Every structure is written in structure tokens, then in C-alpha cells.
Amino acid sequence: MFMFISFIFNEQALTRHSAQRDTENLARGFAETVNNSINDVDQIMMLMRSAYSANPVGIKLSDWTTARKFNTKLTVQISIVDRNGLLLQSSLDMPKTPVNLSDRAHFKAQLNPNADELFISDPVVGRVSNQRTIQLTRKLFNNKGQFSGILVVSLDTDYLSQYYHSFDISNGEILLVSADGVIDARGTLANPTDGIGTSLHNTQLEPMLDAVGPGVIEAESPIDHTERLYAYRPLRDHRLQVAVGLSLEDIRRPMLYRICLATVLCLSILLSILLTGRALRRRQVKEYEAQAALAHAKKLAQLGEMATGIAHELNQPLGVISLSAENCIRAIDVGSSTPERLRSKLNRIIEETVRAATLIEHMRVFGRNDHGPITSIRLQKVMDNVLQIIDFKLSSEHVSIKSDLPSDLPPVRAQLVLLEQVLINLIANACHAYGVSTVPAKPSLRTIEITARSWGAMVRINVQDHAGGISEYAMERLFIPFFTTQGVGKGVGLGLAISYGIITDLGGSIVAANQNGGALFTITLPQG
Q1: pLDDT level of residue 488 (50, 70, 90 thresholds)
Q2: Of 403, 487, 387, 390, residue with least CA distance to 452
Q3: CB-based contact 411:376 (threshold 8 Å)
């Protein structure tokens, strides 16, 4: 009975923890999607503003919408409004009668002479497009620096809501909320446009409006009255808030099913619980040992793959030692030796001996099956060890590492050898991607960028290549054991699966995306 009660409490805690983690990850991804979309649009708006200032009369929106390749799925309309609020140009067909926008909030916001910033409006129905959109506006200045109107880009709220369909979150919900607490975009299973323009003030979601950082809250949706677990994140640069909610019913349903099943099993096998528990423990130990053996085998395979590089690294200090010793003997034989010269040669021998011993010791530590305790580790030390092991492979593949680890970067909580194994695997995969990539690149451009930044109570590590990225088919299966794109005999498909397990066991997360012409892996670990 005690075990059964413990099981129930444990299930509740695990279900809450898992749901919170999934919701936070989804909110983080939605925040990055919205932030990147707005930043991309704003960059082009700034370029258009510069072109307008240089030649107000000569600028044509049709040239920009074609040459600059606006995201037409996201952008409904681009327009120029004069200083009095009259529509001058539109990427859509111009209406036959004048359109006055001086009463619009996105026009009035730019009349403040002391502010020059991007303004993001609440959803409105366009007077030309007749679609519900969010208006992004910036001031326009003539070649004398005088205010002469505004540039308006209308974003499709439905397109922003489509992030919901990227994930299977059943009766979940995503929200994009303005600085005024109004829903700008919403994604859900049914009627995703319902609720757009609704204020969240005086609702159970109001506490997140004043939040200065990410958080989690259980609340009832004011739109469909579904109780959800919401993870929210503010976008400070754009004074927006994103939230992703998972239905509490959907979260609890698998847990309740497992509890009901456990109840039946508990009553039916009460007399044999001790024997069953012992068998389960043995099975868990065997599974853990099997997983550990797989991880160890992967490490040994990596060492085997890099055997040539290790031999090369050892040959260098051994060659220097041999040459220095021969010089000492030759100098003694011809009588040209001096104490200072002999001391210099012997010191060089000592230095190279230490270098070789350090490399051998690290190989021994990396190859052994004892990973050591979870401790506070500096990432710079991890990178130094990783580069010692994989340097020759990088040289032979004509790939360089660009590392950006700030000196004030906090340490992480991890096991040194396991974290090294993950980074070595990601770097080796990037090298392989360059080797098979159809994207032409000079050897000088074959780089792997490794950056790390503090992120709240965590540290985020990015490993970025530019080898063409990951296919949609492979992206869905990356962390599945035995899935590989390297062909028969070239890979067993365990590297990323083991890396995922290692990072998860350390209390972190690892995700993949396509960015900047290649694959981006992001590892998040707790600070040490």
C-alpha cells in the first residue's frame, strides 16, 4: 500500500514536471519564431527607410517586395502613409478613393517627436486588405531629416498562429499578447481566430502580463474556458508576450490511466509483490547496464575512429624528444656542449614528455567506463580536452573550430567525460556533413561555430555548421536509436540518441534546427 501511494504521488510529480518542461520548450520555440520573424521584417523596414530618405520620390514598393523577397506568407501588405495619414502607396491594388489612416493607433504612435522606434499594433482589419492583421510601423524622414510619414507592414495573424500546427498538442493553445494585454494571435485545435483582440486583463491569465521573465501558471482560458498549464515568455525587445498552454485534461489523462491500471495490478498481484519487485529491480539494473555499455561502446568506437589522429598527436612529442636527445649526444660527442645548452634540450624533452603523458591520460580517462561524479565544470576545460582528441580529424577534414566562450561564463553541472562525448559526437557529425554536403564551400569556409551564453539559471551551448542543414525526414528521427543517414557500415545511429540521453540525465535538453545554411544543435545545462 505504501508503494502504491508513493507511485501515485510520484506519477503526479513526474507528470507535472514533464508537462512543464514540454510547455516551456514549446514557449521558447514560439518566442524565437515570433522574435526572428519580427526582426527580419524590421531589418528590411530599416533598409527601406534609408532608401526613402535618400530619394523619397523615387521609392517604389513593387521594387522592394520583389527584389527584397518579403515573406509573402507572413506579410499581407506593405504601405507608405504621408504625414497627414493619407495612404500614398500599397503593395496591394490602390483603392479608387483616398484612404485616411490618421485615426489608426499605429499612425498616432509615430507622431511622438521624441520617439523613433518600431511600433506593433493590436490586431485591426485593414481598410485596403480587409484582413485582420498586426501593423508594424516606423517613421519616415525626407532627405532633410524631417518627418514625412510612416512605413507600415501588415502581418497575418493567422500565419503567426500556424506555429500551433507544428506540434501535436491536442487541445492546447498558443497566444501572442501585446503590451496592452490584448491577444494578437492565437492557435488552437478549433476556431483558432476566436479570441483575437480579447484583453487578458481581469482574467486568470492576467498575472503573466506584468511578468519580467518566463514562468508557468495554471489558468482557465478566457476564450474557450479550458483549464491549461501555460508557460509564458516576454519578448522584451518588442514588448510582446508569448504563451503556450497544454490542456490539464490532456496532461492528466495518461496519468489517470496509469493509476487505474496500477490499482488493478496492485490488487491482483498483492501476494507476489515482493518477488515481482525483485525481478523488476534486476531488469532495471540490466537495462541500465546495457545502456551504459552502449554509451561506452560508442566512446570506444569514437576513439577507434580517431586512432590515426591520436597516433599523429603522440608522434609529434615523441619526435621532438628523440631529436632533442640525439642533439644532446651529438653535442657531447663533438665537445660542443655547455650546461646551458644541455639544460635547454633536457627541459624541452621534459615539456614534450608531459604533453604526451597528458594526451595519454586523457585518452585513458575518456575510454574508461567510470564517468565520475556530476560536478561543476568549466566549459573551456571541456573544449580544451575535446580539441585535443579530435584535432587531427578536424585537420584531415579541413574543418576549423570557431569557439566563443566568454571568460565570465558560469560553470555547468555535468560529468566531464560524458559532456566531452556529446560535443565530440556533434563535431564529428558536422565534419561528416561537410564531407557529403552538396553545398559548395571553400576549405576556408568549412567552420563549426561553438558558442555558449548564460541563460537564466542555465547555460546554452550552440554547435553550428554551414553544411546545408538536416532534411525534414531526418529532423523528425534525429534522436531515435539506430537511425542514421551515414549509410551502411558508416554509422550505427546511436550517437545522437546517446547524446540525448546523457543531456537529459544531466537535467538539461538538446534540440536541433536548421539555421544559417546548416544544422544548429542547442544544449541547455544547469549552471554549476
Answers
A1: very low
A2: 403
A3: yes
Note whether 308 and 394 are within 8 A (CB): no
| CA separation for the pair 281, 279 (Å, rounded) | 5
Residue indicated by cell numbers 520573424: 37
Alpha-carbon distances, residue 257 vs 1, 120, 252, 261, 515 (angstroms): 19, 45, 8, 6, 40
Q: How many residues does the chain have?
A: 528
DSSP 187: E
How does strand 400-404 pair with strand 447-455? parallel
Reported as a single tens digit per residue, the pLDDT across 395-443 is 878 889 999 999 999 999 998 878 888 898 899 888 888 888 766 556 6
Q: Are the C-beta atoms of residues 94 and 77 closer than 8 Å to each other?
A: no
What residues contact 505, with CB distance under 8 A and at least 6 apart? none
Nearest to 507 by CA among 11, 27, 21: 21
Query: What pLDDT was estimated at residue 339?
Result: 78
DSSP string of 279-303, one letter each residue: HHHHHHHHHHHHHHHHHHHHHHHHH
Helix (H) or strand (E) holding 234, with range, is strand 227-235
**Residue 246 cell numbers, joined:** 497544454
Pick the CATH number of 371-526 from 2.40.50.1070, 1.10.357.10, 3.40.50.2300, 3.30.565.10: 3.30.565.10
CATH of 18-258 among 3.65.10.20, 3.40.720.10, 3.40.190.10, 3.30.450.20: 3.30.450.20
CATH pick for 306-368 out of 1.10.3470, 1.10.150, 1.10.287, 3.40.50: 1.10.287
